[in-house]
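[job 4471] stage=fold_predict status=RUNNING
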Amino acid sequence: MNQAQLMAQVKKMQTEMAKAQEELANTTVSGTAGGGLVTVEVTCDQRVRGVKIGAEAVDPQDVETLEDLVVVAVNDALSKAAEASQKRMASVTGGMRIPGLM
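[job 4471] inference complete, writing structure tokens
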């Protein structure tokens, strides 16, 4: 492979990566806790879009449980977002690990 072909391939990969990053920014995943009492929606570029808390989860005498449910739901959503992001980027890079992307 000559240098011109390599540069063309790199440029194509950059274009595909930019498209993938845009798609991921517009892809939303949900994380839940407490059997759905708390739901957190995040984009695959790690931005929280929303938090829904069921009325049954709100107990003024037990705020700590609600806090724990929110943490679990956020971590669940972030884990799903990271997994979706890794899968999408792997399809662009052909599985090649590129620092800063995954």
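[job 4471] summary: The chain has one domain: 21-93.
[job 4471] exit 0
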